[in-house]
Every structure is written in structure tokens, then in C-alpha cells.
Amino acid sequence: MTPFATVQRALSNPLRNITHFGAIAVFLLLISFLVVLSTFWGHLSSGGHTWNSADWLINSEVVNVRRGLFGSVVLWISDGFRISPLVTVIALQSSLAGIVTAGAVRAIVLSPHGCLKALLFISPGFCLLFWAADPAGAARKELITYAAMSLLLFTNGHTRRDRMVVTGASLLFAFGVSGHIANAMMTPMFLFMAWLAIGRRPPIWIAGAGVMCVWAAFNTWYAIRFSGISSAMDVCRPLLERGLDESLCADAIRVTAANTSEAIDFVANGAIGNGDGYWHIIIYPALLVPIVYLVRRTDGWSLLRWPIALSVLPLLPLYTVGFDWGRQTVMHITPIILMLALCLLRGRIVQVREVPQRIAWFMLFLALIWAPRHTFGIEWGMPLGTLLRVFGIV
After folding, report:
1. In the beta sheet, which residues pair with residue 371?
2. 0.90 exceeded by the pTM?
3. Nearest residue to 252 via CA among 175, 322, 173
4. Residue 359 burial by CB count (10 A; 0-12/13-18/19+): exposed, middle or buried?
């Protein structure tokens, strides 16, 4: 049976693809989504989180500042609907997390390789499980890129529909690029996935890729050029005028006044000086090796090995200026998982070797007992601990 025929057969009766591992993965994803939603709405009830909410509200209303273009659009939307900017942010975050969840569940349900796909999505490096394990790392702007990539999982081989989906995903991704330089660093992986999603049509892809690269380059320049401002109150003032509390400006907005050299010194002291960064000698292989193993169960190693290896390169500079090494590691792992899911769903690659049951259960066990922290180190007992709390056991 050809790869295309295999996928068509799977789509004709999706329920046939649900294995016990698929059911477990869907359950974990839905529980994680509910935990993440609870985190978002907790931020709303408390008047906003000084990192996870405030980062989305950094704006250029008074002065040009990195990430400010995005926040100015958020304020413009809020003013247009006459609602609090915080409500806009929480609604946007919740919707984006919903897109990621829907895309992942769709990929598991419709894929003809249910067990392998399920094992991909229960990785501690997949964003939903990562956020549920350490909510402090949730609701940051890489969520926009993950949602844009997840939208590509809704392509189905019909040219007109696929072009519309890819266009929508591209616009969403471009919006995210204006909000955080980390999203710009994930441009190569997004473009590769878009190339896969539209059926490898070079003229369409080349035109879109050219525009996206220029946009990413501009926003990278903008973030570097306006990396430090004289006073964070220039960013905070438009929020105070819209009824938000000044305490919201204590962290993410405060550091807009810090320059790059200060950020590098701060990270170097924590990661190297205190030795916290050495945890990633364990964390990175622990997240990446199982994924590589699953790819080797398919015929896609020759197609995907270079995207997997090279996609980390644009992200490396972030480790010198950002303290959230766990988040930055997940910025590499989650796009890889979504890329593999897209390839399997669309029949670009197929599984050629089964995953032995004992290995599958061992991978599930590992996925339940640990997750990376959003900064340094490991959250032991997660996301199992999250599940126990959800059901009131602990």
C-alpha cells in the first residue's frame, strides 16, 4: 500500500487509529490544556502576571522598544472593542492554546501511525505538557509560533484549502515574530513545515518565504536596535491609562530598560557561575534521543535529520541573553514534534518498523515522571504530579 493510500484509509475511519497509547496521549493533552487554561484565567483574576501577561503588553505607544509593535496592536484591538488589554491577552492566549491542543489531538486521531504519534506528543518537551508541569513557563509568546505550526496540521491535501490554511498560519506566525525575537529564530522550521504542507510547490513557497525572511530580519533588527530604553515607565504608562495596575510592570516591562550586556552578565552568572546550566547536559539528550529513536522507526530519517539538527542553530544566541533555558530547549523540541506529526499525517513519511511494547511503555513512564523547568533543572514527578493534583489525590 502506498503512503498516500495508507493515509486515505486512515482518514476514512479515524477511530481505527486510536490505540491505548493514543487514548493516553489524548487524555494527557486535554488535561494539560485544562491546567494551562486554569493558569491563564488565574492570571486574569489576579490582575495579570508580571511575566506571562505583561510580556504581551510591552508596547511602543510612547517609545520604540523591543517587542513593542506586537503590544501596540494588542492595545489597538482592546481599544477597538472597549475591553481591558488584559482580557484581550488572556482570550488570545486561551485561543492559541486551544489551536495547539486541537492540532495535536487531530494528528493523533487521524494518523495511521497512532502509537508512534502518541509517543511523540507525550514527550516532556512538548509545550502543553511542559506548561502543565511548570506553569511559570506558560503563556509566553512562543505560544503563537506553536499555534501557527499546529494550524498546518489541518491541511489535508486539497490545494485550495491548504493554501488558505498556510496563509492563515503564516499571518499568525508573522504576528508572533513582531512580538518576540525567539519567534523570528524559528522562521526556518516554520517555512520548512509550510513547504511540506502546501505540497512542495516551489513558486508559492519561495515567494512566501522571501517575504517572511524579510519580516523576520526586520523584527530581529528592531529588537536589537531598541533593546534598552531609558525608562520602563514609558511602556507602563499606556497600561495605567487603560486601568491596569502598576504592579503589572514589575518584571517583564521593567527589564525593557536593561541592555544586552546586562542580560548576558545575568545569564552567565546563573547558568555558568552557579552551575545551573549544566542540567542541560542531561535534559537536552533526554528530550531529543527518544524523538530521534521514533524518527528512525520511519523512512524519514534522510529527509528530517538536517531540519532536526540545524533548527537549533538560530536558537543558540537566546541562551546567552535569556534565563529561561528550559523554555528555549522546548522551542527546539516542540517544533520538531509538530514537524514529524505533519509528515506522518500527510504521508510524507511512513512508519516502517514497530515500536516494541516494552520500549513504548518505558517512554510513557519516563514522560510521566519528569519535565524540564522553564529556567534550569528538572521538575520530578511531573506531569504525574499535575494529574494527581487535578484529581485531588495530592
Report:
1. 379
2. yes
3. 322
4. middle
